[in-house]
Structure formats: structure tokens, C-alpha cells
TrEMBL record:
It comes from Comamonas antarctica. CDD domains: WHTH_GntR. Gene3D superfamilies: GntR ligand-binding domain-like (1.20.120.530), Winged helix-like DNA-binding domain superfamily/Winged helix DNA-binding domain (1.10.10.10). This is GntR family transcriptional regulator. The lineage of its organism: Bacteria, Pseudomonadati, Pseudomonadota, Betaproteobacteria, Burkholderiales. Keywords: DNA-binding, Transcription, Transcription regulation. Signal peptide: none annotated. GO terms for molecular function: DNA binding; DNA-binding transcription factor activity.
Amino acid sequence: MSVITLAPSALYQQVAEQLRLRIFQHVLEPGTWIDELKIAEELGISRTPLREALKVLAAEGLVTMKVRRGAYVTEVSTKDVHDVYHLLALLESDAAAVVASSATEAELAELQALHEELVRHKDDAQQFFAVNERFHMRLLALANNRWSDQVVADLRKVMKLNRHKSLFRQGRIDESLHEHALIVQALQSREPERARQAMQQHFANGLAAAVV
């Protein structure tokens, strides 16, 4: 078995990223017990940085620590999905309204370019999801509220535990593209309320697809 070489600086953060990728790629499925001895051996590290990494992932909601049983990949319930979409809809619709009011023409052009990239990847769900996340996170960055940015980043990590069901459902990518087009149109026409409502509808439709 090959050992992954990790730099000594911030070792636990690098271990956290390794585990985060395994969780997002569903190498470690929701509900899976995390075998600390096995993973420490695979990474060629002691269990100390691994345990620190697990604390980071627990704070992000990706890992659940159970007394005397160890760490498990978090299982997402239907209520969790509803709660996450509800919060994302609130935060991102507010960001959309701010961006419609205050973004520069160059910044709006960035969002338009990301939307066009989404269109180009409509037949590749994995790439579509990656660009979709870039669009949403860039819109948040333009709204310039770092507290909202951090909350949304953590919520989106939890969303990934749900296997992107909302985008993989047949027809959902085309629907999502149409919704993004409406959001971009509202931003470019400088209509904050219309942008807010378009984003809220986007999340409402995404939730409906995610819990089917």
C-alpha cells in the first residue's frame, strides 16, 4: 500500500482535507464508521493529527462524534435537508439583492460568464455541480459579508452529503439553468427584489428535487 506524503505544516488541516474529499466523493459514505487506525496507517501519520482533523470535520457537520464509539460520517435526514435549504435560501437571496444593488458591471459580467460556463457543462453533472457552487460562492463574495460567506460554505459542505440528489434528478439541470438565467437577468437589470425572489425560488425548486 502506498503511503501519502503530507507536509509537516498544519498537518491536521491537510488530513482534514483528505478526509473531506473522501466524504464528498462518497468513498466514506454517510453513516460509515471512520477507522482511525486504518486511515492513520494509510496516511502514514499518528492518530493525534487525525483526531484533530476529525474535530475540524465535526465542527463543519461532516462528522459525528459518538461517545465510546468513535467518529462517523454524518447522516443527513430529510429534516436536515429542509433546514439547510431554508438557511441557504435566506442567506443567498439576501446576497442576490445586495449584488443587484451594488455590484459593478465587471462583477456582473463575472457572474454572466459563470452562467455561460454552466450552460457548457449541462451534460456533465459533476462539472455542472462544481461550476454551480463557484457561481453561488462568487455571488456571496460580491455581497461582501464574510460572516454569511462562512456560514454558507459550511452549509454547502453538508449539502454534499446528500449526493447532489437535486441536480442528478432527471431534468433538474435544465431547470436549474433556467433558474440561474432568471437570477442573472434580475441582477443585470438591477432589480434587488426580483433577484431575491428568483434566488428563493431556485432553492425552493432545489429542495423539492432533493427530497423526492
